[in-house]
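Appendix C reproduces, verbatim, an entry submitted by the partner laboratory led by Prof. M.T., so that reviewers can inspect both the input and the predicted structure.
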Amino acid sequence: MNALPRLALVIATGGGIGLLPRAPGTWASLLAALMAPALFLPLALPARLGLLAVVYAGGAWSAARAAALWGRPDPPQVVVDEIVGQWLTLLLSPPTAQWREIALALLLFRALDIAKPWPIGLVDRRVSGGHGIMLDDVLAGLIALGSLSGLRLLLP
């Protein structure tokens, strides 16, 4: 295997976490949540958006190649989409977000990503390729972001 497919697999699997045998999407979301205070939340909003755009673009590219290599439309080993969705959920969280908020973001995102209510499920079924793998998690992240923002207003 040459360097490009290998790089695609490293990105798509979140550095290999997607190769864990059970619940790789949950492990990837947990890793993204744990890394957020050091890698994502300290960034200003424009930098957070830029990082999300870069990870999304690299994720769509790598997910498409990983799907082709594994011969499946959305292999469970591809978890870069969970990283984008989890960080998107935390997009408006303050740099000093408490672990309670990060844990709530994790629960909200995973619940939506697993249940795939409308419109998440619709996108999951109708959009294919690398963007299809990524977009349902982007939608789950956006809905979780809205829910988290609303809950932040209600909770002390």
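The radius of gyration is 15 Å. Additional entries are available on request from the coordinating office.
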